[in-house]
Structure formats: C-alpha cells, structure tokens
Amino acid sequence: MGKRASGSRVNWQKGIEILSNDSPPDFKIGICGLGTVGGGTLNLLRENADEIGMRLGRKITVSHVATRTPKPELTAGVATTSSDPFAVVADPEVQLVVETMGGYEPAFEVIRQSLANGKHVVTANKALIAERGNELFAVAQASNVCLAYESSVAGGIPIIKALREGLAANRINWLAGIINGTGNFILTEMTQKSRQFNDVLKQAQELGYAEADPTFDVEGIDAAHKLTIMASIAFGIPLQFDKTYTEGISQITPEDIDYADELGYRIKHLGIARLSEKGVEMRVHPTLLSKSRLLARVNGVGNAILVHGNAVGSTLYSGPGAGAGPTASSVVADIIDIARQAESGVKRPICPGLGYLQTHEGLEVLPISEIETEYYLRIPAVDKVGVMAKISNVLTAKDISIDAVIQKEPTSESVPIVILTHDVVERKLNEAIAALEELDEVTGKIMRIRVEPFHGVQN
C-alpha cells in the first residue's frame, strides 16, 4: 500500500474549516403538522444535522412549526410555534414548507398558497397529489418553485427519484408493486397461517397497521393513489386517479390461497402500470404471482416495486413503506435536494412535477375490460357427470383456452372447479363468466383473480 500524500489530512481539515467559515445562511423551513411524519422529520433533521450540513454545505433550520397539539419537548429550540398552518405560509423567514397534516383541506390550500407565495413545498400527502396534483404542479411551475413528494409513495423507498433520475434514460415499459403494507400483512398472515380475512384485519388494527376504518388500505384506494403517481412519472402522463382500476382483498379466502399454492402461486395485492400499443394500464387488484418471483416473497408490512426499462431491464426496489423514520428519510431527502438548488442560485429549479417537462400526447388509460392477462377462476358447481365439459364449451366459445384445472373430491353437493386460463382480454372473460353463471350446474358467483406472468422477466 502506498503512502498517503503528505499533508492530506491537513488539507481535508482546512476544507471543513472553509466550509464552516464561508457557508451561506441557514436554509429555513416550516413544518405544518407534527404527527408521526412531521415529528419524525423534525427529529431526523436534529439527529443528523451535522451529516446533512456536511453534505449540503449549509444548515437546515426548522424556524416555524404549526400543530394543533402542542409538543414542547419536540419543538424546543424552534423559533416560532403556532396552531395555524397559514402562519407558516405567511412567515417571510420560511423558504420551504413541509406539509405533513394529511387529508384534503386545509392541506391543499396550505400547499397552494405556499407555492403561490414563492415557497418550495415538500409533502407526504399521496391522496392530495394523486387527486389534485395537476393543479398544484401548475402553481409551482408558474411560481418557479418546487413541489416534491418522494415520501408520498412507498415510505422510505426512493422510488420517485429512481423513476425520475436513475431510470431517466429508459422508456419505462411497466412497473408492478406491493405498495400497501397493511394489505400485504393481511395476505401474509392468511397465507402462512390459513387465517380468515376478518380475523387478520382485526389483528392488524390492534397492531396499528390498519386504521379503525381500513377501507383505504384493504380496498386498494391507498395503493391506487401511489400507483397513479408512479404511472404519471413513468409514462409522462397527467395524474388520472379516477381512471385507475381499484379492487380490494376482502373477498380473498384461505381456500383461494391454498389453490394458488397448489398451482405454484402466491396471492399478492399489486399495483400494476403498463405501457402497451393500446394505451396505459393502471390497475390495483389481488394478483397471482409465481412463487419463484421476488415480489411473491415480500412478506409482512414490507413494500417492493419492480420496474422494467427498455435499456436496463428489470430492477427491484424494496424496504419499509411507512413509519416515522422511513417516511421522514424521504421528506428530508427532498428538503436537501431543494436546498442544494437554492444554494446554486438557479432561476428555475429543476424539479418538473411528474418527471417530464412535456407530457406524452394521445396516451389513453385503458378501461379494465380491455386489459389482457391470464386468470384464475374458482367455479362452484354441482358434482355430476358432464359439468366440466359444459364449462369447457363455454370457455371455448369465447376463445379462452385452459392452462390448468383442479377439481377436488366433493365434500358436499357442490364442488369447486379451479381453472387457470391462458391470456385473454377481460371483456371476453366477463362474457364467459356471465354465461357460466347462467348454467344450472353452477351454484354461485365465480371468483376471478388476475394472474401476472411477467413474461421474459428473470426476477
């Protein structure tokens, strides 16, 4: 090993001294909302203040906090505290506003007024970005300020930066992800312990993974917000939450999980966005995944997103999708990025709202009836000769071919027939299901779960 160059340590120390002596004034921020994420952000900025200062070349100071629940132990040292978030918006000292209140109002107006006043904004509010982000990005652009939202999707996983920066040279073909930890916890427990949905949901609520009203999590709305944001960045289209197909996991049974396992699959609640010749698919629903896939092995409250680019191929991003520390990590990363640009003195900050300076024209979001994939069907039928033949005839008439069949010994007058199909357009499958349910031999509603084969993908 060669000798270290003489004086290198002294030069390094001088560099730190120069940084300390010549660093610009503190970058001052205000935080609106001091709950889990807001409190985590304030704590992280304090805990890692020296490290952040060395990376940025200046200090970040929280100069104003607005919270309806005073927390003196947390806000000690903050110059101004108030109960009014609009006081933060109006504070001339504040250069950047962190919105961690959640909900739609007054969060929307806090963000809008901050941007209009020339203040940058960092938010963790996925619902607000997905449903009203187009309006807010227009205000940010007109005011030459940034609206950043890394923490709104997948907590501590830097998927927004990966899509906007790390994969910027690629045409994104598709992405698929487990993007709601509550739903993933429930399906993991149902899979590993053969438990019923309602039983596991109650446990998730007791553990704090699910809210008292779990609708957003278990019916896929939370995941649809996140998928809407990722699809907009990946494909360069406006936010279109109202066109994202959403289906929850409340109808999944341990029997479906067992049949899927026998066929070589796991059931996961996926958000899938795909660019095809027909248009853009945006859909959230229970999905059969081969047990060999890495996504199929993401358990508990973890999140993971698989992204396929035309140059890089497939890349996987996984980690904690929620919690004070992981989410605050993403909030502070956005603050640092914006502070760097402010320090550089750019007149127009480089943070296009959705990753594209221009949106793609003519890319329509496909209705779920036009997507094409494989399917799992569980058909309740009477146990008599010729039933399978009748079912096969209906499927054949709709040009639907069968890949696999499971038919167990009957334990009652009705027996489930489980079928995996090859690729078929959902519109045709819907017609086939309607025809099957008209048969006298079919005794109830047919359970349909989409299958995601990820053709040609190694992981």
Sum up the structure in keywords.
single chain; 459 residues; alpha/beta; Rossmann fold; Dihydrodipicolinate Reductase, domain 2; Alpha-Beta Plaits; 3 domains; eleven-stranded mixed beta sheet; six-stranded parallel beta sheet; 38% helix; elongated
Let me know the CATH homologous superfamily of the largest domain: NAD(P)-binding Rossmann-like Domain
Q: What CATH first level of the largest domain would be assigned?
A: Alpha Beta
The CATH architecture of the largest domain comes to 3-Layer(aba) Sandwich
Query: Regions with pLDDT < 50 over 5+ consecutive residues?
Result: 1-19
The DSSP helix count reads 16
Query: Would you count the extended β strands for me?
Result: 17
How many distinct domains?
Answer: 3
Mean residue pLDDT: 91
What percent of residues adopt helix (DSSP H or I)? 25-40%
Amino- and carboxy-terminal Cα gap = 40 Å
Tell me the radius of gyration.
Answer: 26 Å
User: What would you call the shape?
Assistant: elongated
Classify the secondary structure makeup into a structural class. Answer: alpha/beta
What is the CATH topology assignment of the largest domain?
Rossmann fold
Largest sheet: 11 strands, mixed
- What percent strand? 15-25%
Could you please describe the fold and organization of this structure?
With 459 residues, this protein is of the alpha/beta class. It has three domains: 14-155 and 326-344, Rossmann fold (3-Layer(aba) Sandwich), CATH 3.40.50.720; 168-320, Dihydrodipicolinate Reductase, domain 2, CATH 3.30.360; 368-450, ACT domain (Alpha-Beta Plaits), CATH 3.30.70.260. It has helices spanning 8-22, 36-47, 49-56, 72-75, 85-90, 107-116, 126-143, 159-166, 181-193, 197-206, 215-218, 221-235, 254-262, 324-344, 387-397, 426-437, and strands at 27-32, 60-66, 80-82, 96-99, 120-123, 147-148, 172-178, 245-246, 265-275, 280-290, 302-309, 313-320, 372-382, 402-407, 414-421, 424-425, 447-451. The strands form two sheets. Strands 7, 8, 9, 10, 11, 12, 13, 14, 15, 16 and 17 form an eleven-stranded mixed beta sheet that branches. Helix 6 packs parallel to helix 7, helix 9 crosses helix 10 (197-206) and helix 15 runs antiparallel to helix 16 (426-437). The radius of gyration is 26 Å and the shape is elongated. The two termini are 40 Å apart. Residues 1-19 have low confidence and may be disordered.
